[in-house]
Amino acid sequence: MGSKNARSVPVLMYHHVTPSSGQITTSPENFDSQMAALAANGYTSLTADQFAGYLNGETVPEKSVLITFDDGYLDNYVYAHPILQKHGMHAVMFLVTNWAGQGDPRPVYGSGDPLPVCPSHHECNAIVAAGKANDIAVRWSEVRAMEAAGTFEVHCHTHTHTRWDLNCDRAGKCAGIANDLQLSRAALLRELNKDTPHLCWPQGYFDDDYIQAAEALGFSVFYTTDAYGFNVVGGDPKYVYRIAVRNKPGAWLMHRIGIAKNPYWGPLYNRWKKFRKQQRRARELRRANKA
Question: pTM higher than 0.90 for the full model?
Answer without folding.
Answer: yes
